[in-house]
Amino acid sequence: MALAGHDRDDMPVSRWLPSPRWLWTGAALLVSHVILLLLSPQFNPNHPLQERPVLLLVGLEVIVGVTWLFAVWPPVPLSRTHHSTAYMVLIGVLLRVVMLFSTPVLEDDFWRYLWDGAVVAVGHNPYVHPPEDFLPTNPDALENIPFTLQGLAEDGRDVLSRINHPHLRTIYPPGSLAAFAVAYAVAPWNVLALRMVLLTADAAVLILLLCLLREFGLPPLWAMVYWWNPLLIQECVNAAHMDVLALPFVLGALLLAVRGKHVTGIAVLSCAVGIKLWPVILLPFLFRPLLRSPRKLGFGALTAGAIGLVLIWPAVHALQGAGSGAAAYASRWEMNDALFMAFQWGVRMALSLMNTAQHAPLVTRMLVFLLLSAWVARLAWFPVDNTSPELARRMLLAVAGLFLLSPTQFPWYSLWFLPLLALNPRPSLLLLTVLLPLYRLRFYFVAREQASLFDNGIVWLEYLPVWGCLLWETLKHPHAGRRPPQPNARLSQKEAETS
Question: 68 and 159: one domain?
Fold first, then answer.
């Protein structure tokens, strides 16, 4: 449901200045991120978890999220001036620069990125040995490791000692590992180098997003949904999560599809799957227009298969064995979920009648997979006018469905749908990105050995408002967004050029 909104203020705006609405919210976001920067050293991993100001952090992040929401909703029907767009870009750049030098807060996935990148950079396969094999506590395993890797382990001892779940082999596809290796080549064991690699992908997302907004005749300021999003800046810059790496390929594939180059788009989207597996659910949207052309359909399938084979094959054997990170994630991981947990409660109750309640996690995963497959198939099946935002809307709904049905709903996974949300702003999903920082409350309860209080109770504070808003959207606008915008809703060529 992409709604063309209006400005909250009726104040006259200078041709040379952005609207007060964006002027003040942009300044407030900048100040709040400086505060987060100053607060971040208190989250040094050497500090006991119980002494870290988690409640203060969560409160600040929610306030920052509400400020962002005030800036982006309702979405403007037209861009005010060229300078408004320039101001949007400038504030986003400054927010990233501020957080570039912050201490990572409550996250440690990046340590494995640094290690995996180092292993790839020196020419070895990161899927063979788990980090645990390189620790001094495991001398027997270390004897069977090549001397090059033994030297690397000695050099990166501090990184190795901080990797979570060190008994598991890496879960990341080869495309991600290549990016980690680039960061190692820039500056070994350096979080700042990793952040710069991620910010390169982040900047590419903005450029492609502006291209898509122009293609659809939508205001470029809608990119603010992505570019100013505090959760994105926290997860991409401060926590250095790698999920942003796949986004330029997703948007590039969408842009190619909009321009009628579906086979090339399939190739680009297949590259995204080689970075993170989730974009595979978007392939049906690019294959759908090829159903009337068997030759193009076959060529597209061959292209996707060949690229997928090249990019995924090196990681296939990593799925096997007790130390497989991918197998552990797929079969056991469950965190910060609400709907999946409710499904699992129901399945467990049903299976308990047959004394097979122990199979509830597997059965629930199978049911959710079937439900998600049916949802994506329904969205992809009906033809769509690629020149309208409708294709992007359906992709957004598919990825949002993947997130909301998943057993693992980490805040950084919301980055998967954030650029598509900029093309189709929806109150429910905007609200979701404001509430997801509540996940960090779990660390507060973990430090006090009360994690179950969060997992079974407080987690609903994140999702009940979102599901309520989704229900409101459905009831209030049951047909909203199902048809492409009419021509008079699009910007004229002259307006697009001046904005």
Answer: no
